[in-house]
Amino acid sequence: MKAYFIIVYLILSISGFAQSKEERFEQSLMTLNNMLTDESRYNFKKAVLSVENAFFDGQIDTVFIEKEIKTLSNICRSLIQNRFLAYVENDKENVNKWASVYQVMCDSIPLVINEREYKYIPFKYDFKDVFGNQDISNMFVSKLLYTRKGNCHSLPYLYKILCEELGTTAHLAIAPNHIYIKHQNKANGWYNTELTSGIFPNDAWLMASGFIHVDAIKNGVYMKALNNKESIALVLVDLANAYIKSFPDSDGSFPLICAEIALNAYPNLASALILRAEIHKQWIENETDTAIAKMKIKELEKEYANIHKIGYRNMPEEMYLNWLVSLKTERDKYENKKLNTFNKQ
């Protein structure tokens, strides 16, 4: 019945020729929902850009963005063809692709164009408004491509997009207030790729934050290599947050649908659980019937109790920034130097 309601809601909302901004959000929701119900429609780049285009009311420069992604992909292909990789396992082709994307994201690269040598400048971390509280577009891949500066949201998203453009995989993974990349190769097993600092930290660094409870690992809240559906669930939360920024006076119905669909794909996605609980809290505050409000408060308490039970802990922004800086200042303590070596060959 819930799925039927969502489909009818979207069809009725999107009907007509000219799209309003709200209808663009509904179109993005339909796009993401289709990717979850039909795996053949999965396209992470399309998913991410659909959200950003909705927020910008269809004014995103898709020609520029596609051109930039194509250029970066071509640089990756050139690196693949011209690199000697000291890696002998039979998954070498994928490892080489991951190494090329890593270089494009994190390394200065000499380029020769028409017999002239240029120095490619990698992306940088932007410490301004890292959570998009002032401007949610600071979290966007399009902003990253325009400015060459990004954060722990846009950098791993672009990394995943480039990997998929090259025909390989990249798994997003979540830490407190943070997204990074996980890969698995035959020589090293699972390992982490951190785009904010350009190194390969071991799990000890993640645990050093002090905000990763063992229950969060056990329940897949943090440090899990996300599959494609779970990655789309992350994008659904992005869509909900972008909608809230665009329509701050909305009743929460649209973001709640986003959260419910996300949780169907990824039941322990903490950001979706918190989003749903906050919307329910908003509804309780607006409830005029005291008896109904009391009943709903008990249900809300169960929601928050479950979020705590699965291991989620809130990490203050200042502590998060200090944690990020520690990765560079204590690099020798947390870096996997073997991975750093073959990724820069």
Structural commentary:
This protein is mostly helical. Helix 2 (21-37) packs antiparallel against helix 10, helix 3 runs parallel beside helix 10 (228-246) and helix 11 runs antiparallel to helix 12 (270-285). It contains 16 helices and 7 strands. The radius of gyration is 21 Å and the shape is globular.
Strand order of the largest sheet: 5-6-7
User: What radius of gyration results from the CA coordinates?
Assistant: 21 Å
The N- and C-terminal alpha carbons lie at a distance of 54 Å
What is the overall number of helices?
Answer: 16
Could you tell me the number of beta strands? 7
Q: Give the integer mean of the pLDDT values.
A: 89
Q: Residue ranges: pLDDT <50 for 5 or more in a row?
A: 11-17
Largest sheet: 3 strands, antiparallel
Strand content: 5-15%
What proportion of the residues is helical, as a percent range? Answer: 55-70%
Give the secondary structure arrangement, pairings included:
Layout: H1 2-14, H2 21-37, H3 44-55, H4 62-82, H5 92-106, E1 109-113, E2 116-120, E3 124-125, H6 141-147, E4 149-150, H7 154-165, E5 171-175, E6 178-185, E7 189-193, H8 203-208, H9 214-218, H10 228-246, H11 253-265, H12 270-285, H13 290-309, H14 317-329, H15 331-334, H16 337-343
Parallel strand pairs: 3-4
Antiparallel strand pairs: 1-2, 5-6, 6-7
Name the features.
16 helices, three-stranded antiparallel β-sheet, mainly alpha, 345 residues, two-stranded antiparallel sheet
